Amino acid sequence: MESLQKLFKTLDLTAFEAKLFIELLSHGPSSPSKLAEALGVHRPQVHASLKRLISKGLVEIYNGKPAKYRAVEPSILFDILSREVNELFKDSRVFVNNIPRKRQDTEYGIWLFKSSKGLMSRFLRAVSEAEVDLAVSGDVAFISRLRKKLIEAQERGVIVYVIVYEIPGVKFTG
After folding, report:
1. Residues 21, 58: contact at Cβ < 8 Å?
2. Of the chain's two ends, which shows fewer C-beta atoms within 10 Å, N or C?
3. Would residue 70 count as lying in a domain?
4. 59, containing H or E segment
């Protein structure tokens, strides 16, 4: 549920609207009064949320007395979300790439990463750009994943220093 709510946020929809969509998807077409009763909210809140879901293409309406609403198929939901996320990604990339930056001729120093996100891509970039010396430290599994790129660096003439340490309880058998 939480992951769907996060995705709905990219469409500028609320957590309640995600719940409303799930209610329609799981229980089928329903009237606003039955939805309000099932979700424990007032009908005006349901009506407002249904309008927003309809405007995003996630809910369809059957005219009648009373009107009934149904959620679109999950494949349609994910097509809409995919297009929206791709558009956000594209716009964000253009924005970030156009931010003026002060250029550095060379990067020096020791870089410390405190999370695994982005570590591998940053490290691979550093290995690819290395020109003289490169020092790498990690456990056997980490070094093994980088072996190919480290060999390529050596073939370019980079002096590669590798420090492998053991993690207690992990045995290397290769």
Report:
1. yes
2. C
3. yes
4. strand 59-62
In 2-138, which ranges are continuous DSSP H helix? 2-10, 15-27, 32-39, 43-55, 74-97, 119-129
pLDDT tens, position by position, 38-70? 999 999 999 999 999 999 999 999 888 888 999
What six digits make up the tokens of 103?
A: 């250029």
The residues pairing with 68 across neighbouring beta strands, listed in sequence order, are 62
Instruction: Report the distance separating Cα 141 and Cα 166, nearest Å.
Output: 10
Q: Rounded distance, CA 59 to CA 20, Å?
A: 10
Dist CA 148 CA 89 (whole Å): 30
The range of the structural domain enclosing residue 40 comes to: 2-97
Answer yes or no: do 63 and 116 share one domain: no
pLDDT of residue 174: 46
pLDDT digits (tens, 9 = 90+) for 96-121: 999 988 776 666 666 666 666 667 77
DSSP 8-state symbol, 30: B
Average pLDDT, the chain: 86
The residues near 134 (Cβ < 8 Å, ≥ 6 apart) are 126, 127, 150, 153, 158, 159, 160, 161
Record the tokens describing residue 100, joined without a space.
């003026």
Residue 172 CB: number of other CB atoms within 10 A? 12
Residue at a domain's end among 40, 66, 97: 97
- Count other C-beta atoms under 10 Å from residue 134's C-beta: 18
